[in-house]
Every structure is written in structure tokens, then in C-alpha cells.
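Field log, afternoon session.

UNIT: design team B
ACTIVITY: writing a sequence onto a fixed backbone
BACKBONE:
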């Protein structure tokens, strides 16, 4: 990325204006971020960069601090050490509304949808366009239906009927609607907490396709997952968390899927486990040597 010659013309209309820090400031930067819940240290010294047109994956086991991390970016929790910069500017987000106003849209795993309301109604929830004024003001239903259909179609989602209750869609389809919604309402950063966790292989693939489509639309995407295969399919950068601290940060070209999987699983811990399982299931256990000498503490 060479510096742009600052001659009078604008670079591209899609690039977010990044203020005086320059057009190259990442959308979001975390630097040495920490978060405690009482005396539980959920995060410590975590750093991460989110860039436009890239997917940053946050990987880690249960309790690693993934959700805590995105709640800080989403404005749900405040970090208590380190810095959060949005478009180059140091910030402490006070509420999800503030995050949204800065262009950060978060799709939680338990999607905030109203199951009995039609798809289009959920698509516009909280941002409904109206017609008329004063006592004649009413929802512009036709426009909402049409826009929802068009916005979904632009993402390649051809929903037969936007009037069906969103509760009748599959989990994967609901995730896709949520992604299309964030793109439609102009989010710059899309944060997804385990969007494929409850999905089968095929539906996971579909959701990942729309995650990639959001990236191609120029958004910076943060994808939380504990599935290295899903991460590796779409990710540009991988941040590994382990019990609240960073266990690695790699660009895709620096790491293979095998190595990512190994690091995720905690290489030696997995070897120890396979050792133990092999022993437990061993054919016949000839000389009764069950668990002779175990080496080293099982660290937590
Ligand atoms: N509101 C809270 N109050 C107290 N402790 C919390 C709270 N939220 C999370 N924790 C603790 O912080 C640590 C990190 O939790 P977090 O939910 O961020 O993990 P995670 O990586 O998202 O896990 P999972 O894969 O299970 O979703 C855990 O030890 C958890 O018990
Ligand atoms: Mg979580």
C-alpha cells in the first residue's frame, strides 16, 4: 500500500472518510485491551485491527473471552485498560447506540428478531420509514417490502416471500437477513458472534458466503468462531484467544489451516487427550498398566 499522491481527486467514493489521521487508519483498533468482571479477568492485553474489505477472525475455546471482546467493540461493555480506536480516534463506547452511530453493527448469536413479524418488518425494526406528517404519519409498508426484497437480492438472497414471519426462516437464513440488513443500513464494521455455531455444514457455507459478500461490499468484518475450518475459508487475519489472553495473531499467508487448528486445539493438550483416550479404549489393556505416570500438570 503506497501512499496516495494527494492530488485534488478523491480516491474512491466507497472509502470512509477517515479524518485527519489519513485514509489508511483502520476502522477499528484494539491495543492492549483488558476487561474484568469482578475479579474474573475476562480479557488482558488483547490487540486487534479491523480493516475495510477484510475479515478478521477471533478464535478461541469456550470462555476464552470472544464475546467479551466483541461486546467492547459493540458498546455493550467498557474496557477497563488499553485503547479502542475507531477510524483512528481513541474512543470509549458508552452504549450500543453509540457503536451503531459510528458504523459498527453487531449480529448476536441469539438474533434480536421478533419471530412472528414478517421479514420486512424485522429488516426495518427501529429504522422504519414513514409517509405523511403529524396525525397522518404512517409506516410506508410498500416501500419497506420492496426495499427488503431488493436489499436481500443484492446480497444474492432470493427470498420467496418477505411477508412470511421471520420465525419461519432457518437459522442460516436469519443470519443472512441480519447481514444484509447491516450492509443496507450502511454499517462500516460488521461483527458476527458465532454465526455458524448452530448450523449444519451446508447452511454454514451459505452464511459464510454472505460474510464474504459483506467484505466484498467494503465492510470490515469481525467473525467470532471456534471453528478453524470456517475461519480459514473466509478469514484474512486470525486472532487466537486463550483464557482471555492472546495466543496468536496471524495473517492468512503466515499460517496453514493445520497449524491454525493445532493452535486452536492447544497442540500439546490435544496430544495428551488423545493419549488418554487411546489408553482408555485400548484393546484389552494387556498388563493392566492403566495410568502409570502422568507427566506435567494438566494446566487448568
Ligand atoms: N457478565 C459477566 N459476568 C461475569 N463473568 C463473565 C461475564 N461475561 C463473561 N464472563 C466470564 O468471562 C470469561 C470470558 O467469557 P466470554 O463469554 O467472553 O467467552 P467466550 O469466548 O465468548 O466463550 P463461548 O465460546 O462459551 O461463548 C468467562 O470466564 C466468563 O465466565
Ligand atoms: Mg461467546
Amino acid at each position: 500500500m503506497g501512499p496516495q499522491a494527494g492530488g485534488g481527486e478523491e480516491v474512491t467514493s466507497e472509502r470512509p472518510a477517515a479524518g485527519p489521521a489519513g485514509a489508511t487508519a483502520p476502522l477499528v483498533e484494539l491495543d492492549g485491551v483488558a476487561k474484568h468482571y469482578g475479579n474474573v479477568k475476562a480479557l488482558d492485553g488483547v490487540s486487534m485491527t479491523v480493516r475495510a474489505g477484510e475479515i478478521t477472525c477471533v478464535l478461541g475455546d469456550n470462555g476464552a473471552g470472544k464475546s467479551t471482546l466483541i461486546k467492547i467493540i459493540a458498546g455493550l461493555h467498557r474496557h477497563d485498560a488499553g485503547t479502542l480506536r475507531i477510524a483512528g480516534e481513541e474512543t470509549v463506547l458508552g452504549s450500543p447506540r453509540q457503536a451503531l452511530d459510528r458504523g459498527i453493527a453487531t449480529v448476536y448469536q441469539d438474533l434480536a428478531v421478533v419471530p412472528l413479524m414478517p421479514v420486512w418488518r424485522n429488516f426495518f425494526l427501529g429504522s422504519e420509514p414513514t409517509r405523511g406528517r403529524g396525525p397522518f404519519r404512517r409506516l410506508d409498508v410498500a416501500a419497506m417490502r420492496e426495499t427488503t426484497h431488493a436489499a436481500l437480492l443484492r446480497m444474492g438472497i432470493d427470498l420467496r416471500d418477505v411477508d412470511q414471519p421471520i420465525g419461519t426462516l432457518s437459522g442460516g437464513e436469519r443470519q443472512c437477513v441480519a447481514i444484509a440488513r447491516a450492509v443496507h443500513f450502511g454499517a462500516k464494521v460488521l461483527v458476527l458472534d458465532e454465526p455458524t455455531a448452530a448450523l449444519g455444514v451446508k447452511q454454514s457455507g451459505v452464511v459464510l458466503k454472505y460474510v464474504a459478500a459483506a467484505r466484498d461490499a467494503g465492510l470490515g468484518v469481525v467473525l467470532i468462531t471456534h471453528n478453524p475450518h470456517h475461519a480459514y475459508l473466509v478469514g484474512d487475519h486470525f486472532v487466537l484467544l486463550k483464557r482471555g489472553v492472546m495466543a496468536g495473531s496471524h495473517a492468512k499467508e503466515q499460517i496453514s489451516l493445520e497449524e491454525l487448528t493445532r493452535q486452536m486445539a492447544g497442540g500439546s493438550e490435544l496430544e495428551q487427550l488423545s493419549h488418554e483416550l487411546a489408553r482408555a479404549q485400548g484393546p484389552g489393556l494387556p498388563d493392566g498398566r492403566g495410568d502409570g505416570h502422568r507427566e506435567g500438570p494438566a494446566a487448568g
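LOG NOTE: The chain has a mean pLDDT of 81.
NEXT ACTIVITY: expression trials, pending approval
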